[in-house]
């Protein structure tokens, strides 16, 4: 029976080594925790109305997310950056970030977020006096909503269009 004990001991050592090997743990890395903390600070600054500070923090969040190659939050951060610029009245910058957010959401195949960004961008275009561009976007979104038989989406777009 010594071989049985030896096998048990070896398997215990292998499990311990795998558990302690960097990159094999299930928990977030320190870089991920730092990025998460930065995002929370940025959202807090935006909630407080500290728009400049929030934009600076969101920019740093983007750099951190790219450094750790975590793409899942990029679209959200870009959208929030766009919101910060929109609130500040810097519509061209807001549109740029919204466009970049749409690309990020497409890369993740997040149809709901793409939908939201399309409506947000069209509304901003209307606010800027670019009615024709806004209605073109609404029309494209309406066609997609009909293809996907999205009754709520159709209602939202028809409500947005006078």
What would you note in describing this structure?
This protein is an all-alpha fold and 162 residues long. It folds into two domains: 28-109, Serine Threonine Protein Phosphatase 5, Tetratricopeptide repeat (Alpha Horseshoe), CATH 1.25.40; 111-162. Helices cover 80% and strands 0% of the residues. The protein is built from eight helices and no strands. The protein has helices at residues 2-20, 30-48, 51-67, 74-87, 91-107, 111-127, 131-147, 151-160. α7 (131-147) packs antiparallel against α8 (151-160). The longest helix has 19 residues, at 2-20. The radius of gyration is 23 Å and the shape is globular. Mean pLDDT is 83; it is low at 6-21.
């Amino acid at each position: 029976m010594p071989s049985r004990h030896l096998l048990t001991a070896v398997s215990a050592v292998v499990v311990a080594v795998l558990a302690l090997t960097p990159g094999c743990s299930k928990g977030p890395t320190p870089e991920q925790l730092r990025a998460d903390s930065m995002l929370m600070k940025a959202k807090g600054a935006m909630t407080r109305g500290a728009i400049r500070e929030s934009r600076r923090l969101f920019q740093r969040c983007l750099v951190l997310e790219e450094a750790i190659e975590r793409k899942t939050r990029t679209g959200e951060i870009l959208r929030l950056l766009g919101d910060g610029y929109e609130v500040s009245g810097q519509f061209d910058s807001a549109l740029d970030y919204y466009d970049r957010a749409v690309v990020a959401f497409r890369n993740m195949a997040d149809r709901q977020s793409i939908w939201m960004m399309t409506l947000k961008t069209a509304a901003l275009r209307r606010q800027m006096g670019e009615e024709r561009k806004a209605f073109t976007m609404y029309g494209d979104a309406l066609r997609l909503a009909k293809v996907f038989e999205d009754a709520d989406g159709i209602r939202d777009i028809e409500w947005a269009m006078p």
